[in-house]
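Same chain as my last thread, 190 residues:
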Amino acid sequence: MHSSTPTVCVFCASSTRVSAEYTHAAQTLANILVNNGFGIRYGGGSVGLMGAIADTVLSRGGLITGIIPEFMVEREWQHPLVTNMMVVKTMAERKKLLIEGVAAIVTLPGSTGTLEELIEVISLKKLGQIDTPIIIINTNGFFNPLLEMLRRMVDEQFMPASDLTLYTVIDHPEQIIDAMAMTSVMQNEN
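reply #2:
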């Protein structure tokens, strides 16, 4: 799974009913990452933002790796054109492989699965298990309630204010390369 191409993990939705604004953000992110020489590792789906990411990377001749559990393959949720598809037994194994050795973990809007993945990597970083940059793309203010909840955790002494630096929030996918560079610089200084 490790190639010489730096890879970015992208967590995102598989819903086909979301606003075109979110689909456009996913396509823009994929284009920017391909243009800047990054491969993408994602959940292996064929529809929603997952499908938009995969279709964009494939149309550009970029490198994309899908990681999908067997039960999703049985339901035919995997992207049929992603040739670098790893099939795993469990969701836990999928999440472990999605983030292993990546240059950054990027989260686009999504549902409970996306939220769970994001919270898990923030927790892993807090516990010192990973040091990967975590970047949240807050398209249309989607993550504002979550960010407010995290700030409340600090305000009410459930976590230290320093935990709010475990992730970087950007409003537009066009900011991704600068955010990745800034996050890497900050981590190298710590």
